[in-house]
Amino acid sequence: MLALNNLQILYDRAIEAVRDVSLQVPAGSIVALLGSNGAGKSTILKAVSGVLYQEDGEIVSGTIQLDGAALAGSSPRAIVQKGVVQVPEGRALFGTLSVEENLLMGGFTRSRSESAAGLERVYAMFPRVKERRSQVSGYLSGGEQQMVAIGRALMGDPKLLMLDEPSLGLAPQIVETIFDAIISLNKDSGLTVLLVEQNAQLALQTAAYGYIIENGRIVLDGPAEKLRANDDVQEFYLGFS
Ligand code: ATP
User: Fold this and answer.
1) What is the spatial distance between Cα 111 and Cα 93, in angstroms, rounded to a whole number?
2) Ligand 1 centre distance from Cα of residue 42 (Å)
3) Mean pLDDT calculated for residue range 181-196
């Protein structure tokens, strides 16, 4: 579904954040992109979502294709309409708006009846979000905010959902709820997922295939179970010695 080919990305025309990255996310799969702070993971997601220009970032070579058609160069809105939706790192909710208003923002490209159906779907998936629907989102716990952020993305009815560090800073129980939801969206609705994580253990349990990025380059990729068994991955990413 998504294919990045030899992507090179610069910030401020000078800082090379992504170097010659090629990566595939087949339809119906969950693919993980792993790496430490500053490795280039968020930059790749921003390139796919079309928002790099907001930070003076630029794709200087390579291509991004969705179902074989060029994606780079489309506006962020057009990219959402093509079915590619990102849940940004830190969630980026509209903190002064209610939970339901945040969710409705995610359905901005859709009709009123589609939005109503979307809300029901999100509330069925996350009953906790339904309970809190009238509350100001800025006062929710981190885990609740992450559920709202995922719900808001689902309101756009994506075919490819990109999640940037969904487990960051959350309690284990909430992380489990969120990852169960991601897995069931993939299994039951066939949603394709690109998952960016620093928690390699969690990501390699969830995804079928993984890519490891260091200093802007993919240094290793393979089926998740092969990566889990790899000595370097165990030492540097899974904390085994
Ligand atoms: P993190 O988990 O910390 O977000 P990451 O793997 O997502 O890490 P990126 O945020 O993509 O990494 O950053 C990749 C490189 O690009 C880093 O060297 C970072 O300092 C640089 N970078 C990121 N955003 C900008 C920006 N807006 N302007 C200049 N350089 C940036």
Assistant:
1) 22
2) 7
3) 96
Q: What is the pLDDT of residue 241?
A: 58
Distance 115 CA to ligand 1 centre (A): 34
The model's confidence at residue 109, banded by pLDDT at 50, 70 and 90, is confident
Q: What number is the average pLDDT over the span 112-128?
A: 94
Please state the atom number of ligand 1 nearest to the C-alpha of residue 55.
27
| Distances in whole angstroms, Cα of residue 58 to Cα of each of 6, 35, 73, 105, 144 | 14, 21, 10, 27, 33
Taking the centre of ligand 1 as the mean of its atom positions, its distance from the CA of residue 136, in whole angstroms, is 30
| Contact criterion met (CB below 8 Å) for 141 and 93 | no
**Predicted confidence (pLDDT) per residue in 18-56, tens digit:** 999 999 999 999 999 999 889 999 999 999 999 999 999
Q: What three-state secondary structure class fits 201?
A: helix
Q: How far is the CA of 44 from the centre of ligand 1 (A)?
A: 10
Asked if residues 162 and 89 have their Cβ atoms less than 8 Å apart, the reply is no
Atom of ligand 1 nearest to the CA of 196: 7
Computed from CA positions of residues 137, 150, 189, 201, in that sequence, does the dihedral angle turn out positive or negative?
A: negative
**Residues lining ligand 1, Cβ inside 6 A:** 11-12, 15, 17, 35, 37-43, 55, 89
